[in-house]
Specification:
Chain B is mainly alpha-helical. Helices cover 84% and strands 0% of the residues of chain B. Chain B has one domain. Chain B starts with a helix and ends in a 7-residue tail after the last helix. Classes of the chains: A mainly alpha, B mainly alpha, C mainly alpha. Chains A and B meet through helix 6 and helix 8 of A and helix 3 of B.
């Protein structure tokens, strides 16, 4: 009971802090300096209609590279944690009771979902969406297949290859920017094109597509790891 | 127009808070997981109202979709490996 | 509208932390953390949303010349986008470790894990 009192006290202090923040908050009437720069020059400098994409891929591209690295590390650690002492999974030991309706339906649905994912990250510089959302949609089509056909062995090497290739090409494109344009991950080594068209904004669609493939591969590998780990052999 | 949006936001906020209390207080773990997913889904509608469609897409796809499934995968594994079904 | 959303976000953080600190089941603690996560996202987006403005996507309706006066702050949105993705990575990591603990102990009860107790 003393512990619960402690928790409530701690949260009350935190709540007071939040209350002070909330009461002292005055919404800006104007954009602040950085945001105003992005709003004024973003479209002209980078040619991207979606300013959030311009910030993620180019202005703050290094942060995104770091983020993708963190995600990669998390995926690797999950594989490591769940793989230690894992017995070889026999196909028979897995759940086989899946209705035929679900299997057939998901075979029909998975390709269009994958296509939607690709559409979302290719158009990331024009419409809402981009690599992270598209990658999540790709992973959800992998999830559908995983649910519908638990017996099918997911190719770990295919996922690993897609992830490694897209990650390396991403860094390589960043270096291209360093050599042929203004700096690391600068998108202007390709022509900017006409504002608002699919092939515009330099390398942004290319880089965001690679991010999408990488994120999709990473999420898929997390899902495969968490769903396919066998428990029964190693109970103490 | 603006009043309708304000009303909608207020409704969504109340729904989120009620769902959050449910998620913390309810006894069954699956309901808690679903409630957390529902909070993410409602939050993605709030993001659209706050003029952030990118964030709304991400929250809907990742926060309420993939996260919920990760929880259920682990819960299924836990239930398969214990007699009491993972409940305390 | 932004004030309302921000208050909700703050309260969600508090509710989530309360759940994470008082539950004994590891999975329920992680659920609390994800709720707090959502709260943080709402607060950050609400800070960037200026009243009466539109999304930071330029097209025929919002030409680049008018962008300065008509769009909301895009930087918090970019930050929250990354935060959501990293949030899923962290949640998956917590779940993997919770599962690993369960395999070793046969329980998810945090009170039964006594190595670090004093």
């Amino acid at each position: 009971m003393i512990r619960r009192l402690f928790v409530v006290l701690l949260l009350a202090v935190l709540g007071g802090l939040f209350l002070a923040l909330q009461l002292g908050y005055v919404p800006d009437a104007q954009l602040n300096q950085t945001a105003a720069y992005y709003a004024e020059h973003g479209a002209g400098e980078l040619g991207a209609a979606n300013l959030v994409t311009a910030i993620i891929v180019t202005y703050r591209g290094l942060d995104t590279l770091g983020e993708v690295t963190v995600l990669f590390l998390a995926t690797t650690i999950i594989g490591l944690v769940l793989a230690t002492g894992r017995a070889t999974i026999s196909s028979e030991s897995r759940r086989t009771q899946v209705s035929e309706l679900l299997t057939t339906g998901s075979r029909l649905l998975a390709p269009p979902i994958m296509l939607l994912g690709v559409y979302v990250f290719i158009n990331g510089h024009l419409t809402p969406g981009g690599g992270f959302q598209g990658g999540a949609i790709l992973a959800s089509s992998a999830l559908l297949l995983l649910l519908a056909e638990p017996l099918r062995d997911f190719s770990h090497s295919l996922i690993a290859t897609v992830e490694a290739l897209s990650g390396s090409i991403y860094v390589l494109l960043g270096l291209f920017g360093l050599v042929f344009a203004g700096g690391f991950l600068d998108n202007r080594f390709l022509p900017l094109g006409t504002f608002g068209e699919l092939f515009s904004a330099g390398a942004i669609p290319l880089i965001y597509s690679l991010i999408g493939l990488k994120v999709g591969a990473e999420f898929s590998s997390v899902l495969v790891h968490l769903s396919a780990t066998d428990t029964t052999e190693e109970q103490p | 127009m603006n009043a309708i949006l304000l009303l909608l936001t207020a409704l969504l906020c109340v729904a989120m808070l009620v769902t959050a209390v449910t998620a913390i207080m309810v006894n069954s773990t699956p309901i808690a997981i679903l409630a957390a997913g529902l909070i993410s889904l409602l939050a993605s509608v709030v993001f659209v109202l706050l003029a952030a469609p990118d964030v709304a897409m991400t929250e809907a796809a990742i926060g309420s979709g993939l996260t919920t499934f990760l929880f259920f995968f682990v819960l299924a594994r836990v239930r398969a490996g214990s007699e009491d079904g993972g409940e305390l | 509208m932004t004030t309302l959303a921000m208050t909700t976000g703050f309260v969600l953080i508090l509710i989530g932390l309360y759940g994470a600190l008082t539950n004994r089941n590891l999975l329920r603690m992680i659920v609390g953390f994800t709720i707090a996560d959502t709260g943080v996202h709402i607060v950050l987006v609400a800070v960037g949303a200026l009243p009466g403005r539109t999304a930071p996507i330029l097209d025929a309706a919002v030409p680049p010349a008018e962008a300065l006066a008509r769009i909301v702050d895009p930087i918090p949105q970019a930050l929250v986008l990354t935060a959501i993705v990293i949030g899923l990575g962290v949640t998956a990591l917590m779940l993997a470790y919770a599962y690993r603990l369960f395999v070793r102990r046969g329980t998810l009860d945090i009170a039964k894990m006594t190595e670090l107790k004093w």
